[in-house]
Specification:
Elements lengths: L1 E5 L6 H12 L2 E4 H11 L2 H12 L5 H14 L6 E4 L5 H13 L6 E6 L2 H9 L1 E3 L6 E3 L26 H24 L3 E5 L4 H15 L10
The structure holds adenosine monophosphate (AMP).
């Protein structure tokens, strides 16, 4: 199965994509996570994207497509993938389709996670992330077992720089403008479906699995497969 998760920052794409990847044994690729890791490593790519990520602006399409085409190529032998945070613009959607076509495959569908602005603001302002493994927590709704520490690797949790209040509004505006043409791109191809992103991660995940089954994108495996 090859799907993309669309939706504004805070809609839950990262948490849901991570659960979906574990549950279905598919790859999870997140451009935001890739960029944050490359910035932390101080790599050439990290230095190129740093100012964009720090200011909440979108990294230019050509660079994002190049990075993702390489990563998707490396994952071509997996059972499929879920993409989170990519594509983010119409140009990236076209670039993604072209890259997959070269591999003889295509996207099964795009799920847009809809959320009210007040809920997005609540989620983003309480979000904490692990700088080492990228696991996402929330100070009220997804607390770590040990306060301030990652459940997976015990690293000290941090607030993403772009989750500061003034940056959050800015990112929501940028995302709104970029995503409208993206939504119509998938609609026109009959690949678009919308999902109510409100509620706990478990609730939305349950809805998402049902939707995936309804769409016929996957024959579900049992938990023990
Ligand atoms: P995210 O973790 O998805 O919120 O992404 C964090 C930041 O990484 C964004 O604010 C952008 O600066 C950059 N970024 C992530 N994905 C993309 C993308 N597909 N296109 C352009 N910039 C991106």
């Amino acid at each position: 199965m090859r799907i993309v998760l669309l939706g504004p920052p805070g809609a839950g794409k990262g948490s849901l994509a991570s659960l979906l990847a574990k549950r279905l044994g598919i790859a999870h690729l997140s451009t935001g996570e890739i960029f944050r890791q490359e910035i932390a490593r101080g790599s050439l790519l990290g230095r190129r994207v740093q100012s964009y990520v720090a200011s909440g602006r979108l990294v230019p399409d050509a660079l994002v497509i190049q990075v993702m085409a390489q990563r998707l190529n490396a994952k071509r032998r997996t059972r499929g993938f879920v993409l989170d945070g990519f594509p983010r613009t119409h140009g990236q959607a076209v670039g993604l389709d072209q890259a997959l076509k070269r591999q003889g495959v295509s996207i099964d569908g795009a799920i847009y996670l809809g959320c009210s602005v007040s809920l997005l603001l609540r989620r983003l302002s309480g979000r904490r992330v692990c700088p080492q493994c990228g696991t996402i927590f929330h100070i009220r709704t997804m607390r770590p077992r040990r306060p301030g520490r990652c459940d997976q690797c015990q690293a000290r949790l941090v607030i993403r720089k772009d989750d500061q209040p003034d940056m959050i509004r800015r990112r929501l505006n940028i995302d709104g403008a970029a995503s409208r043409p993206l939504v119509s791109y998938y609609r026109k191809r009959g690949l678009f479906s919308q999902l109510d992103g409100s509620g706990s991660v478990e609730t939305v995940f349950g809805r998402m699995l049902k939707q995936i089954q309804r769409q016929g994108w996957l024959v579900m495996r049992s938990k023990d497969d």
